[in-house]
Specification:
This protein is mostly helical. The protein is built from seven helices and no strands. α2 crosses α6 and α4 packs across α6.
Length: about 130
């Protein structure tokens, strides 16, 4: 990756990293759910929502935190420290902040084209299934 591209991404606000990270993670979850075999679309939607809502993402964030590099931890905490404008009713402030941290990390890895690392971390979350119903 070009050095200037890495610097550009590092300058993005954490919420912008989380914005793209949210989409990256949801797509990975959807692909994972489809790989489990035929399921009705309503069940796929319900399962996807469960995996990507803040409490589930916060659980995933706590699980991944010890596995992160120094640079990844810095991005993670940038995301966690964002002051949210509003918190969904389904999440506590802490859950929402850790969810944003996870999304910011995934967005950073995606935009810096660290695809292998991104896939590794997402695979760890999907394999752990701490929040699957």
């Amino acid at each position: 990756m070009a050095k200037h591209r890495m610097q550009e991404v590092q300058q993005l606000p954490a919420l912008q990293l989380a914005y793209i990270g949210d989409a990256v993670y949801e797509l990975a979850v959807r692909a994972h759910l489809l790989s489990l075999g035929p399921v009705r679309i309503e069940q796929l939607h319900k399962a996807t929502v469960h995996w990507v809502q803040a409490p589930s993402q916060a659980a995933a964030a706590h699980m991944l935190l010890p596995e992160l590099t120094e640079t990844e931890v810095a991005v993670f905490y940038r995301g966690r420290n964002v002051k949210p404008a509003r918190i969904p009713k389904s999440a506590s402030v802490s859950e929402y902040c850790y969810s944003t941290a996870l999304e910011a990390l995934f967005g950073y890895l995606y935009l810096t084209e660290q695809t292998e690392r991104l896939q590794t971390l997402i695979a760890m979350v999907l394999a752990a299934k701490p929040h699957e119903k």
